[in-house]
Amino acid sequence: MILHKWLHESTKKRGGAKALVYRDTYLSWRGLEHRAARRAQEFASMGVARGQWVGLMLGNVPDFAILALALSKLGATVVPLDPTTGARDLGLILEHAPLRALVTRPRGGVEAAPQPLALSRDGEPVEAVESRRRLQGTLLTCSVYKEKRPAPGKAAVVLYTNQANGEPKGVLRTDDNLQQAADQNGVALDANDEDRILTTVPLYHSYGFDLGLCLALRFGSTLFLEDDVAAKRVVKILREQDINLLPGTPSLYGGLAKLPTAKVLKIKNARYLSSGSALPESIAEEFKDRLGLRIIPVYHMTETSMIACDRKGSAADSVGKPIEGVSVRVGDAKSNGAPASVWIKSKSIAQVNIGGRRPVRGEVGVGDFDSQQFLRSGDLATQDKSGRLFLAGREDHLVKVDGKRVALSEVEDCLHSFVKVRAAKVRVVMDPFGGLIMVASVVLDGKSSAEEIIDHCAKALAPYKVPRRIEFCQSLPGSDAAVA
């Protein structure tokens, strides 16, 4: 399948050149292909076959890339999952994703710790495990499930995001989708085999997967993986390794710009990308002043890969014009310049998703196609006469926090489930270091501390869904009551 095809082509072209770098170790292209072949044999010995789905619950480590390539060699479908996925969300995923196996790593300690037991909507355990074994020479555990219903569609990879009610939705991307996306992204970014790509955004997220792993494989670039996003460490890598292509987020750039030791980066052909949430102009300007590089805003979605890009980085509030191969329509003539629905058409768009709610009959819902095969993205935007896009929020109740969709209703439901909370409302605000954070306004029924409430949320929600700040009120914002 396509990922392994790219690997084989890059190996023939690049051979002993560095393919994958992590901390103080690296793999050449030949070494990466060899490792992937060995893992493919191991998966086959476990009964994993062509067309079956295998989950990779891993972060930005070499094993993610090696195992994804091994599964691609077998013709299996790669299902990247957030390692912080809780029992409830994992259960919801397993309800509609027929995983044949799931690879996990220990959560603390040397010995592999058991992952959270997947629970159904009713709180009952799901999935019967056929076998569980450790992958050779690693601490990774592979749980093999009993075979069940066939896959709901053909896919090279299934990338997960959240829908409006907070439940996970899987987007099925085919070989053709990935090929088209990689080619379009490559043209838009002038990608080539001399690029040195640093991926700090998660590979299990479509942004890191598309503009990190896929771009490197497709064009034979060197991929640097990093799971520590501390600004001091990241800027050290940028400088010492001459990183010229960086998919980043506003919060990453905000942290880098405010680093006391930040100095101008003298890097040729630098393309430092920002996506996931709006890029504040103050962050863009401060980064340019301190590190000497313009940030390039991009518009990216799980269903479509990259949609638009501003290579000139001339306006932080614009994500630029649609890239070659992507058609965009914003509202209609009745919009009169007001923010309106963004509709997208491209061969890179996934045609199938699972786990999402179906729209009302006769209505084209968010994530569905109209009669002309334009996808209703759910984003709102305006478009100027030159074709530049200016994003202006969402149609639904989703927000993006560091590139990940969050349903505010899910967070509010979690807050309401805390016995000492009478009422709660969640909003997003711009953090001075760049990027959106969630703030919860809470009316108490009794006494509680912010730490207690945050701990309660942390036990039920993925880390990126947990409010960063709690504000105690006499009543919810919008009333006449004063804040306590």
Task: Write out key terms for the chains shown.
484 residues, alpha/beta, Rossmann fold, GMP Synthetase, Chain A, domain 3, 5-stranded mixed beta sheet, 26 strands, 27% helix, 28% strand, disordered C terminus
Structurally, the number of domains stands at 2
CATH architecture field of the largest domain: 3-Layer(aba) Sandwich
Distance between the termini: 59 Å
Radius of gyration: 22 Å
Write up this protein:
Helix content is 27%, strand content 28%. It has eleven helices and 26 strands. Helix 1 (2-14) runs antiparallel to helix 2 and helix 1 (2-14) crosses helix 6 (206-219). The chain folds into two domains: 1-395, ANL, N-terminal domain (Rossmann fold, 3-Layer(aba) Sandwich); 400-472, GMP Synthetase, Chain A, domain 3. Strand 20 (375-383) and strand 21 form a beta hairpin. It has helices spanning 2-14, 29-45, 62-74, 87-96, 175-189, 206-219, 231-240, 250-257, 281-291, 408-416, 450-460, and strands spanning 18-22, 25-28, 53-57, 77-80, 99-104, 129-134, 141-145, 157-162, 168-173, 196-199, 222-225, 245-248, 271-274, 295-301, 305-309, 321-322, 327-330, 340-345, 352-354, 375-383, 389-394, 398-401, 404-407, 421-430, 436-444, 469-472. Mean pLDDT is 87; it is low at 108-114 and 479-484. It is α/β, with parallel strands linked by helices and 484 residues long. The strands form seven sheets. Strands 4-3-5-7-6 form a five-stranded mixed beta sheet, with helices on one face. A five-stranded mixed beta sheet has the order 12-13-14-15-16.
